[in-house]
C-alpha cells in the first residue's frame, strides 16, 4: 500500500492540512496529530507507531465479527468483478440486496418483513422519519406528524437525524431543526432517579413522560415515538425492565407508531439478533446499520413492519425517496456474508450464554470497588462505567467530563481503546472476544483507572 512510503509525521501533516474529521475540534487535532491506524486483526488494531491496541469499541460500535475476515474481502472482490454497481430505482434490482433483505426479514421479529437500504444509520433514520409521516398521510391523517424522542438520544448526524436525536450541543449548531420533533427525559436511572425511587418506579415515570408529551400534543397529532432500546452514544443507558412494556402500552393506546433505532444494538450486541427480541419490543420500524456489515462496507437497513409496509404498498403510489447507493450490490454481498458468519460461528450465542455475563461480572468484581467507579452496568457486549469523584454522592469531576476523559487517555496509553461519553466510559467490543480478551481488558481498564487517579 502506498501509505507505507510515508512516515507518521508526514501523514499527520497532510491530515491536518486537508482532512476534516467528524466530531472533532480541529485546532486540538492539529496540535495533537491524528493516531494513524494502519491495520487490524481479530480483536486488535495497530497504529503507525507500532502499538497493538485491544479494540474495546469494535471500531465505532460496528465491527461485530472482529477484524480480518478474508471471506468478506473475497466476497466484495467477486461482486465487484461481477457487477460493481447497479441501482434499484425504476423497477430494477440486483441479486444481493434481494437475498440480504430476505435474510434480514428471517432474523427480525415476525412482523418485520420489508427492508429499505441506505449507506448509513443517519440516512436510514431520515428514511424512517419520512416513511412514518408519509404513512399517516396515506392513512388520511396528515396532522399526525409529531415525533416524540428523548434527551440524549443519538440518531445520527444529517439534519433530520440530528433533529430526531436529543444531543443539545448538536442542536445548538443546527440552525433550523426539522420541525415537530419533541424530546422527553431518557430512562437513565443512575443519573436521574430520585432519592429512594425504585428502578421499577423510575422506569414507569420515564415512560409517563412520553405519555404526557403525547397528551400535551394531542394523540391525533403524534405520528411516532423513536428510541434506541439502550441509548448508546448517550452513555449506554439501559432502561429499567418496566420501561419498554409501558412504552409499548402507551404507543398502542394512542395509536402512535414505535420506531426503534438499533443501529448499535442490532446484529448481536445484546445477545440476540435484535434488542427488540432481548427486550420483547414490538416495533413498526427498526433502523439498523453498523453490525449489518460489521463495518466492512457502509450499509444500513431500515426494517419496516407489516402495518406500515402494507399501507405503503397498497395506498402509496410512488414514495419519492431513495439514494444512489440504496441496495448497493457490493455492500449487500458483504452484509449477507457477514450475517452468515455471525450465524455460522455462533457469535450471538457466545455473547448471550457465556462472554456477556463474564465481561460484566469481571468488571464488577475487579474494579467495582475502585474509588473512581460509581456504577458498572451492561447488557451483552454493551458496557458503561460511570466515573465519579465521590461514590456516595455520585458527584463528578470538574469540569464536566474530565474524569472520564482522563480514564480514556489512560486506557489508550494502556493499549485498550475505549470511549468517554460525558462522565461515562463505554465498551462495545467485537462479539468474538474470548475470556482471555476479557481478562486482558479488565486488567487494562484497572490500570487506566489507577493512572487517572494520579492526575484527577
Ligand atoms: N443511530 C444510532 C443509535 C447510532 O449510534 C448511530 C451512530 O453511532 C446512528 C444512528 C448514525 O449512524 P451513522 O453514523 O452510520 O450515520
UniProtKB/TrEMBL annotation:
One of its GO terms (molecular function) is transaminase activity. Keywords: Aminotransferase, Pyridoxal phosphate, Transferase. The keyword Protease does not apply. This is Aspartate aminotransferase family protein. InterPro entries: Aminotrans_3 (IPR005814), PyrdxlP-dep_Trfase (IPR015424), PyrdxlP-dep_Trfase_major (IPR015421), PyrdxlP-dep_Trfase_small (IPR015422). Signal peptide: none annotated. It holds the Pfam family Aminotran_3. Belongs to the class-III pyridoxal-phosphate-dependent aminotransferase family.
Amino acid at each position: 500500500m502506498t501509505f507505507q512510503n510515508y512516515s507518521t509525521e508526514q501523514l499527520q501533516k497532510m491530515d491536518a492540512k486537508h482532512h476534516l474529521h467528524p466530531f472533532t475540534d480541529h485546532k486540538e487535532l492539529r496540535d495533537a496529530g491524528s493516531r494513524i491506524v494502519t491495520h487490524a486483526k481479530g480483536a486488535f488494531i495497530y497504529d503507525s507507531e507500532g502499538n497493538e491496541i485491544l479494540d474495546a469499541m469494535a471500531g465505532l460500535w460496528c465491527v461485530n465479527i472482529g477484524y480480518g475476515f478474508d471471506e468478506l474481502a473475497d466476497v466484495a472482490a467477486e461482486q465487484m468483478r461481477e457487477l460493481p454497481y447497479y441501482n434499484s430505482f425504476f423497477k430494477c434490482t440486483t441479486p444481493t440486496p434481494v437475498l440480504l433483505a430476505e435474510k434480514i426479514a428471517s432474523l427480525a421479529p415476525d412482523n418485520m418483513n420489508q427492508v429499505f437500504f441506505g449507506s448509513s444509520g443517519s440516512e436510514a433514520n431520515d428514511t424512517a422519519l419520512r416513511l412514518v409521516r408519509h404513512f399517516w398521510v396515506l392513512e388520511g391523517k396528515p396532522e399526525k406528524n409529531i415525533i416524540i424522542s428523548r434527551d440524549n438520544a443519538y440518531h445520527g448526524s444529517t439534519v433530520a437525524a440530528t433533529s430526531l436525536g436529543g444531543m443539545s450541543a448538536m442542536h445548538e449548531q443546527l440552525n433550523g431543526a426539522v420541525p415537530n420533533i419533541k424530546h422527553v427525559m431518557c430512562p437513565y436511572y443512575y443519573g436521574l432517579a430520585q432519592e429512594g425511587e425504585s428502578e421499577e418506579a423510575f422506569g414507569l415515570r420515564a415512560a409517563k413522560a412520553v405519555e404526557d408529551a403525547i397528551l400535551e400534543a394531542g394523540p391525533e397529532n403524534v405520528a411516532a415515538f423513536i428510541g434506541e432500546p439502550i441509548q448508546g452514544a448517550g452513555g449506554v443507558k439501559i432502561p429499567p425492565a418496566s420501561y419498554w412494556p409501558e412504552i409499548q402500552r402507551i404507543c398502542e393506546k394512542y395509536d402512535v407508531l414505535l420506531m426503534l433505532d438499533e443501529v448499535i444494538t442490532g446484529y448481536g450486541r445484546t445477545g440476540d439478533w435484535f434488542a427488540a427480541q432481548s427486550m420483547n419490543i414490538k416495533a413498526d420500524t427498526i433502523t439498523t446499520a453498523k453490525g449489518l456489515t460489521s463495518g466492512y462496507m457502509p450499509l444500513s437497513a431500515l426494517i419496516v413492519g407489516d402495518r406500515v409496509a402494507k399501507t405503503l404498498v397498497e395506498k402509496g403510489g410512488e414514495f419519492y425517496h431513495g439514494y444512489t447507493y440504496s441496495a448497493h450490490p457490493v455492500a449487500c454481498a458483504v452484509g449477507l456474508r457477514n450475517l452468515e458468519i455471525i450465524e455460522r460461528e455462533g457469535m450471538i450465542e457466545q455473547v448471550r450464554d457465556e462472554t456477556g455475563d463474564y465481561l460484566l461480572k469481571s468488571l464488577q468484581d475487579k474494579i467495582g470497588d475502585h474509588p473512581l467507579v460509581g456504577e458498572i452496568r451492561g447488557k451483552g457486549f454493551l458496557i458503561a462505567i460511570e466515573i465519579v469523584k465521590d461514590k456516595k454522592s455520585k458527584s463528578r469531576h470538574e469540569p464536566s467530563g474530565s474524569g472520564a476523559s482522563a480514564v480514556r487517555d489512560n486506557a489508550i496509553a494502556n493499549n485498550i481503546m475505549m470511549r468517554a461519553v460525558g462522565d461515562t466510559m463505554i465498551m462495545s467490543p467485537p462479539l468474538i472476544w474470548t475470556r482471555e480478551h476479557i481478562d486482558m481488558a479488565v486488567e487494562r481498564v484497572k490500570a487506566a483507572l489507577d493512572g487517572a487517579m494520579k492526575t484527577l
